[in-house]
Amino acid sequence: MISGVVLFSAGSAGAESVAIARVKNIDGTVHVERDGRRIQLAAGDRLMRGDRIETGPAAALGMAFSDSTMLSLGPDTRIVLREYAFTPAEGRFSFVLEMAQGTLAYISGLIAKLMPDAVRIETPASTVAVRGTRFLARVDPAR
Amino acid sequence: MEKRLSREWIRRLVWALALIVTAAACEPRETFVLLPEGGRAPGSIAVTGGGVTRGVDASWEAIDVGERGEQPSLPFRYRTSSAARQFGAALDQQPLPPTLYILHFETGTENLTEASSERIVDVFTAIRDRRWPDVGIVGHSDRVGDEDESLALSLRRAEAVRDILVSWGIDPDILEVDSHGEYNPLVPNVPEPGNRRVEVTVR
User: What is the pLDDT of residues A7-37, one digit of tens each?
Assistant: First the structure.
């Protein structure tokens, strides 16, 4: 099986090409959809704003963001890294996830510390404002 | 009297059964649980659904949501024994927490103090100990002097730290240098040598 190549540009033009997180742990088959391409993820791969992450039925992964926010996903999980901004010098902070289904564990980083209202997750039935340090989310797939 | 009592009990039994059947059929689709974190206060989460917002601000408190358009449930106590079953796979992949190192410099220079010259070796080791490290190197300054100068100096100091790590063989691609200038001082609002620092976070 050939793994996709993940491109990482340091400081290049366009917010979308900047890596916002890195896969630290991975177990099983996990894919990311980015710019119309579907790539299998491996440990050490970088993630970008807008990425759609999908874990397989027996897979899980853990990722760390630039501000030290930690996110772990269980099996059969689909999320989108909808918004991410961390530039303290400009006062810009944002962390918004879309979670379509699955299980997720979140540990807050500097974004939550410096701007508690910046963290939000959107699910099919709810919007969750996260001003906590750690939380768990579970969304059953549509019947 | 006895006949009326037994009918009353039958009514109650049927009602209880109906509740159980209904509850089983309407499994909540979504659950959100606030967790403890060491000695820190857990903060809060606020769940909005069907135009209603409910929140929890205590550890192991949770909120369920049924279908789209429904209101979130009242907060309830989440059974910690359920966490391993429902979230175990995700929790098993949780990354290591970041470690933070604070480095100080001789006044007005980009030279590390003696103590920090030793401390930076710990930074190097911490990076080497992780499989897929990312490192944030952030220069901070204090509120003495004009903002441009302290910003420039704090950036040069952060770059000096990066250069040392790179010279020791650390891949520059994993090092991100930033300057927060006067933002986020350790001791707010006063000139304070402790504020003039470079913080290195190893993730």
Answer: 444 444 444 578 999 999 999 999 999 999 9
Residues A95 and A107: their CA atoms lie apart, in Å, by 12
B53 by Cβ neighbours in 10 Å (0-12 / 13-18 / 19+) ranks as middle
Q: d(Cα B78, Cα A84) in Å, to the nearest integer?
A: 30
A7 touches chain B (CB under 8 A): no
Instruction: Say if the Cβ atoms of B134 and A22 lie within 8 Å.
Output: yes
Nearest to B92 by CA among A54, A56, A59: A59
Burial (0-12, 13-18, 19+ Cβ within 10 Å), B67: middle
ipTM score assigned to the predicted complex = 0.88
Residue A106: which of A74, A142, A58, A143 has the closest Cα? A74
Query: Under a CB-based contact definition with an 8 Å cutoff, are residues B138 and B179 in contact?
Result: yes
List chain A residues with CB under 8 Å of B132. Answer: 22-24, 43-44
What's the confidence (pLDDT) of residue B193?
57
Q: What is the pTM of this model?
A: 0.84
Contacts with B64 from chain A: Cβ below 8 Å: none
Among A60, A109, A132, select the one facing B89 at the smallest CB separation. Answer: A60
| Per-residue model confidence as pLDDT tens digits over A56-103 | 999 999 999 999 999 999 999 999 999 999 988 788 999 999 999 999
Predicted pLDDT at A16: 53
Instruction: Say yes or no for a CB contact (<8 Å) between A89 and B42.
Output: no
Query: Does residue A1 register a pLDDT over 90?
Result: no
